[in-house]
Amino acid sequence: MVKPLNQNVVTNLQRTGIRRFNELVAKVPGAIKLTVGEIDLPTPPNTKLRGINAITENVTKYTPNAGDLELRSAISEYLEQHYQLNYSAKNEIIVTVGGSEAIDTIFRTLLEPNDEIIIPAPCFPGYLGSGILTQSNIVLVDTCSSEFKLTPQQLEDAITPSTKLVVLNYPNNPTGSILTVSELEKLAEIIIKHDLYVLTDEMYATLVYDDIGIAPSIASIQGMKERTIIVNGVSKSSSMTGWRVGYIATSEKIVEQALKVHQYAVASPASMAQKAAITALTTDFPETQKMALLFERRRDILVNSLNEIGLKFNRPVGAFYCFLDISEFGMDSWSFAEKMLYDYKLAVVPGSSFSKYGDNFVRLSFAVDEQIIVEAMKRLSAGVASLR
Ligand code: PLP
């Protein structure tokens, strides 16, 4: 008899709802996919060229575990330029295999079984998987009635003596919410009072609208830098999901420990992808800003159509998702999404993929061409009319 696998943790882990739903979508020819979690445009040309040149120049070997020092320096300058934050390229930054590895590495570095992590929900499913794997206690805070923003009162109420880490993800996947500096300041006060760590997932920081420029970081608030772990990367900001480059920026004390976890798991990301990321964060940064302008137009088209159809939603100010309230239809999010898929050939992500607090919603991505949004809205309008 073959011995069982890790039943305690791994075999009980569920695949994400997004993956499971996408398997259904793949079997429906002609479905319009508002399910996508990545930019539809190619990686900017100079960035691609840098990757190609790196291969030609034989940059095809291991880099230091913490990442190519030239990239770490570019990340350090980026954080200085956009947030006036000083992180040492040598001691306070780790280049990771996308934001996903950054999150997982930090969870495994910080958390022991039964430590509590506070996660505002609905949330990116990666936190749930990595949280379960560390056997820590995930404390979800329902933000559905506070515009998907964690409020100081909600945070205070969720804290117990076992709380160790708070996860913030603004701009937020799946809701497009962001927090203002003054909202972050109020959370910071509580986090400092209770002596907690914060993981701030800023993967969508540059994809913000309404003249915000770049989303503020809680690390910039007085007293927060030493207890904050910034997670970011080029996947979303530079349309580089396949290159697999992210990073962690935090104190030397945390980096020293996280580096061991990272080293044993991955050694380092691909050397040529790291070179390309340097160009993405420097020469090609204007491309990132152009993408944000394009996405703002798409957001507006989507939001105007949803208003015309008379649907309820929170107007997204960041990321490229709109979380649509479907509570008026009296259906769970999976049934609603299946109906739209099979009857109207429109694919949207069931909100239950983003924790139990997402079940009255579906996520619409506007990382698709304007014409596709227009056609999708026609299908949604017909689908909604049939349910009213
Ligand atoms: N964090 C958030 C909020 C995300 O939405 C995603 C991807 O969807 C990630 C992290 C993971 O990013 P990466 O593709 O760089 O691993």
Per-chain topology:
Blueprint: H1 17-25, E1 32-33, H2 45-56, H3 69-83, E2 93-96, H4 98-110, E3 116-121, H5 125-133, E4 137-142, H6 152-158, E5 163-168, H7 181-193, E6 197-201, E7 228-233, E8 246-249, H8 252-266, H9 271-281, H10 285-309, E9 312-313, E10 321-325, H11 333-344, E11 346-347, E12 349-350, E13 361-365, H12 370-387
Parallel strand pairs: 1-11, 3-4, 3-5, 5-6, 6-7
Antiparallel strand pairs: 2-8, 7-8, 9-10, 10-13, 12-13
Helix pairs in contact: 2-9, 3-9, 4-5, 4-8, 10-12, 11-12
Structural account:
- The protein has 388 residues and is α/β, with parallel strands linked by helices.
- The chain has 2 domains: 17-43 and 286-387, Aspartate Aminotransferase, domain 1; 45-283, Aspartate Aminotransferase, domain 2 (3-Layer(aba) Sandwich), CATH 3.40.640.10.
- Helix content is 41%, strand content 14%.
- It is built from 12 helices and 13 strands.
- It has helices at residues 17-25, 45-56, 69-83, 98-110, 125-133, 152-158, 181-193, 252-266, 271-281, 285-309, 333-344, 370-387, and strands at residues 32-33, 93-96, 116-121, 137-142, 163-168, 197-201, 228-233, 246-249, 312-313, 321-325, 346-347, 349-350, 361-365.
- Strand 9 and strand 10 (321-325) form a beta hairpin.
- Helix 2 (45-56) packs antiparallel against helix 9 (271-281) and helix 3 (69-83) packs parallel to helix 9 (271-281).
- The relative contact order is 0.17.
- It binds pyridoxal-5'-phosphate.
- The site of pyridoxal-5'-phosphate has 14 residues, from helix 4.
